[in-house]
């Protein structure tokens, strides 16, 4: 198998654009001969396209749907094309009559569950495994619809292209899951009007060709001091050798089920929907997990890994205290020593969680530097780890930091989205129209987004902390200000002042009070796959009280930001028939003492 997959861009109609795509790194350009396609080109246009593609160093591909062998050979002779892509029973059945000099790309269909459908055309037996490729696409080729890549499995002898719903956002993950010899994209690099976009083509190629582990487009990476490279390399190696193994995953999910309380329910909030006069609202109830928030998923996963690596001590940072409580809980479960770094200001705001951590056996270390919040707690935890990694694992609480932490945390939290996807279909018979989640570092959001990223019909909406104003220091809305930089080992969007210094942040919710956003969220925003907005402290408080009174559920202030978005926009952005899932990332018991100053 080749290390880097071949790249095929299908349906380009402009010769200059096709030439640029090849210069950027595309290997094949598909020329559509099917007259009913919006990407169709006539013979003269095909000749010009093929000439431009060859001149740039690429290979043009004639894409046929139910052409006879005679018609295919005639077209190839007139255009000089020597690669054919075969759709339809006639083209597949007659390809053996074509000259042996023509390379074949033989298309097989895959249903939405990832199962390869039987091919009745009879053309497979005439393929040459050294010359030809298969191409796996969804049942409606060219529609941009995806299928379940987790279930897709081809073990035959032919090299193959992966197609169906690929885009700059998901191609890297698709490659990791399926290990194809080539990838094929069409609608995934088009704008809403169906026009190929050079920027999307460039992003797609970059993510196939130059996207090393730990990168989400240009975001992510591992920007750390030399003293941290050894433990990070150990973690990178363990991701493949241990974490992704069937044995580890079976143990992990058994603990989630029998100790943490998974699966969590998907609850329809009917009274809230009626109050808003908006969509059907479903709450993914991470607040019902052991310890009261989604953080336990990641803490149990990382502490299980620490035991496998024979570590005896865990250090962690915490803002709202939920990750600290989850880490302390996991350490008690696995018999590990636990030290939690927490900003002194956050300790005041989240006093109940401080007491919970201590009760669970953790040593809570107050951080007095800087603004005494989450950013400063991360700084201290990283300093500790650089000097203690031989016996210590740093249990980072969100999908940020240096590689492999964003990938690792996202993997442990992906159970949220997988459950929600199954549950909403069971309850409604279809997939949701939108997913909404609050975003601090972004672990709860990426956990639920991950199952829906490949489905472009599902809107992904992240809600940041708008705080009490628009000036730096009054909020934690990173995407809104769109400044890029490095913080805590990762390249992403963050809040900086005019001198490039990390700016102070503010949020009523300690868990969102952080100046950077996880790199995968930065990538989802830049590629347009997700949108990010913000709501104020005041709006979050209103949502906090409303959910309690309408549904009898007290949400965390962090989760209240996602509810607040629906209060503001639900009626305008959605119809009454739309289905929206809100990730209720945690419960709000921890917030009640601190809310006295807001006259709750």
From TrEMBL:
SUPFAM superfamilies: Ribulose-phoshate binding barrel, Tryptophan synthase beta subunit-like PLP-dependent enzymes. Keywords: Amino-acid biosynthesis, Aromatic amino acid biosynthesis, Isomerase, Lyase, Pyridoxal phosphate, Tryptophan biosynthesis. This is Multifunctional fusion protein. Its EC number is 5.3.1.24, 4.2.1.20. The modification N6-(pyridoxal phosphate)lysine is found at residue 295. It comes from Coxiella burnetii (strain Dugway 5J108-111). It comes from the Bacteria. The beta subunit is responsible for the synthesis of L-tryptophan from indole and L-serine. One of its GO terms (cellular component) is cytoplasm.
